[in-house]
Amino acid sequence: MKLLAIEASQNATYYISRYQQIEALGAEVHVLNGIGTEDFWPAERYRIAGSKQIEDIVTAAKIWHAEEEFEGVLTFSESGVVTVAVVAEALGLPSIGFEAARTSRNKLLMRQAHERGGAAHPGFRYAPDVEAALTAGEELGYPLILKPTLGAASNFVFKVDDPEEMRARFADATSGIETMTWALMEADGLDLGPNGIIVEGYLDGHEHLIEALAWDDEVYLGSIVDRITVESGTFDDDVHHAPSSLTPEQIAAVHEVVRDAAHAQGLRRSVLHAEVRFHQGAPFILEIAIRPGGGGLDHMARISAGHDPIRCVSDVARGLRPDVSHYAPTGVHTAAMCLISGAGTVESIEVPTEVAEDPALFFLKITATPGTVIKRPPAGNNILGFIGATGTSLTEALTTAHVAAGRIRTEMRPEHG
């Protein structure tokens, strides 16, 4: 089977390992980047459109499809989901459709869909300027969450406790979204909806990340991971654990809210990455993305729940129903965390052999390289990479991950540039 993977603007080498996972499942992956480097993928299965314009990407895809007859189109990039929906429709291949993709990309359109569809969600307001944000604070009450409508990876997402902080964080976020990578990597020529700031009510409970599948009228929760980060005013998404500590009753309630939200977003045949947070004992939807979760969440899903989000992507792209079932933990404990440094420029990163070859580590991915500029909140939310470990308990898995992370040596220059 031949599949076409697309990024409007190449995100370094981040998705190569996932393309390799697709190929390990028996597919032949061809990669089309709107803008990209020459050596990204094997030359015979790689093309660069030379432009981020959606019309140019569609044209390049049509020409290649006429030669290769692809069975499906896919992406793992949050900045590529709308582009893939448009390209798939243009090629006559299975597609989520432009409107469902746009709704699932833009946080304001997503919230409005949740409101119309009756999915439990936090109160929200769109804030085109700081005065609107302050009015939202008066109406919704503090603390609040401030986030970009076209954000990703927790960039410029802040918890705001009072009007003074609202003014400061609104300025940080408004300035930040002008240069935010995730928005800049989108294809040009697409109407993605408002590119601005949304203010939401704060949910005070525990948070969970879910790899799921929408197929016709059903939604399957394949994997549930608990976010166990000690929370501050920013959101690093840095420590996770599976299997989930949720009770069967809580899982049933989570299933209901994810199903309602997915259907409200117009998702009937899609891979889902859902984020849910409890408030006063009940689950509320934070968001649903239409691609697998990042970091090591796909590995955690396979190990802790027997669910393979990457295989689901391959099947859904071709219009095939994946072989999935409802959440059933395996009993193996996993813990994963981001590798976080201070702000600055990376001089070097050294991974000792005993860490690289540690059998207890199921995932180790260094995404930064020498010269990478690391921005930390409030200026951005860059990280060095990811690490994940298994164990017979949460404590054992988390300790293994922490010890291994502590052995990775990183040299930084404090100044940017």
TrEMBL record:
Keywords: ATP-binding, Ligase, Nucleotide-binding. Residues 111-318 form the ATP-grasp domain. Coiled coil: none annotated. InterPro entries: ATP-dep_AA_Ligase, ATP-grasp, BL00235/CARNS1_N, LAL_C2. The keyword Nuclease does not apply. The keyword Cytoplasm does not apply. This is ATP-grasp domain-containing protein. It comes from Streptomyces nojiriensis.
